[in-house]
Each structure stands twice: as structure tokens, then as C-alpha cells.
Amino acid sequence: xxxxxxxxxxxxxxxxxxxxxxxxxxxxxxxxxxxxxxxxxxxxxxxxxxxxxxxxxxxxxxxxxxxxxxxxxxxxxxxxxxxxxxxxxxxxxxxxxxxxxxxxxxxxxxxxxxxxxxxxxxxxxxxxxxxxxxxxxxxxxxxxxxxxxxxxxxxxxxxxxxxxxxxxxxxxxxxxxxxxxxxxxxxxxxxxxxxxxxxxxxxxxxxxxxxxxxxxxxxxxxxxxxxxxxxxxxxxxxxxxxxxxxxxxxxxxxxxxxxxxxxxxxxxxxxxxxxxxxxxxxxxxxxxxxxxx
Length: 293
Known about the structure:
alpha+beta; four-stranded mixed β-sheet; two-stranded antiparallel sheet; elongated
């Protein structure tokens, strides 16, 4: 199974006149980075929530937030007296400077944050009934995120397998081309030497030595063997039920290294084309691997 690092989950629940929503957003990341936002009075839940994420995920930049509402006061309005007093002082000062008079209490009460029908602060512990219910919702949200990342991962797996098939086919073509390179190089060298020496009196032994040196320098057998091995290893990793993003990223770097060497040793236009095609597929592979956990 393969898991993506992209996903979203949202769980809403309530207990004893307290309702809440726990939401998670996840995107790509080199490691596990959780930004957790809790309302005042819920700080006691932070350690337990972070431990759950650490046990559940290996990689991903995540943003998780908890929103809590307490309806135990019957919906009675609450006034932020400190904010109201500060605003009233500023209004009186402005009225004094402008010469305006009259009460504007109703206007101040209508300002955002001055009056609220919700409880402003909470005191929720990790061991309490509400705290345990919230932590259960966190577990539910984590499972939902796992499912979302798994669905995305299955799509990624299909893409990566297709790219690996393209790389394998191109590597096989490169091997076929490498088998014909010695004869092509020998014929090309003969033509060049004959063009320089008009009498065409060539020393066959010397010519064979030069050809052997060139063929040795242009031999890509090891590069093709390593490309084949790396492709097989990448395919094997895709079927493992464990985090594999870092290993796939490392393999993509090794694949690119071999493709570059293949291009630098190319003794024909055909081999150069194989190298470029491989590098294009490897770039696609690396880009997709960046999404894998």
C-alpha cells in the first residue's frame, strides 16, 4: 500500500452541552510537522493529540484545529467588558475632540467581539468526560485522514508504475543500442582515418587498439545494469506496506545519476535520445515521489 501526504479530514461531535469540530489539513513535507491550534482552556489536550499524530504518521506538513462551543449557559449573551470599556474611552475622546455628544452604547455592543452568545473560555482536561470524547474525535479524524491519503496514494501508485514501465522500456532500448555501438564506432573511425590519410594505408592492429579504447570508454553496460536494478527496487518498494517516500526519493536521484552518465558516454545520437527520454521519465517519477509518505 502507498500513502500520499495530501489529505483532509473533519469530525464534529458533542458531549454534555459542549460541541466541537476537529479539522486536519495535510500537504507534502520532508518530515512530520504538526501545527496545532487549540482554544483557551483546552491546552491540557495538546500533549495527547500530538502523541496520536506522531504514532499515526511519518511525514507531512499538517495543520490541525479544534473549535469548541459550550451551550450550558442557555445561549445567554456575554459581554467582553474590558474591550467595551476600552472602546468607550476612545469614543468619548473622539466626541470631545469633535464636539459631538450622545450615547453610542448600542453601536459599541454591535461591534465584533464585544458581545457573544458563546462561552469565551473552557476548562477541559484530558481525563475528563468531554476531554476523552474530544480525543476520540481526534482518533476518528486521524483515521479519516489515513483513508483520504490512502485513496490519493493508490492514484499515485498507478502513475509511478506507469512511469517505471516507461523507464524499463527505454533502458531495454538503450541496451539494444549499446550492443550495436562497437561496430558503428569502428566503421566511423575507419571513415575518419581514411579521410585524413588519402593513401588509405591503415595499420589494422593500431586501428583495432584505438577502437578498443573508444569502446571501453563508451561502454554503458554497468549503467544499464544499475538502471535496471534501481527500477526493480522502486517497483518492489511500491508494494510494501510501510512509509517509502524517502527511499523512493533516493532511488530517483540514483536513477538520474545513471541516466546522466549514459548520456555522457553516448557514442551515437540514438543513445543520447535514450538518455534524454530516461531523464524526462525520472523527472516525472521524482515529482510524484514528493507526494509519497
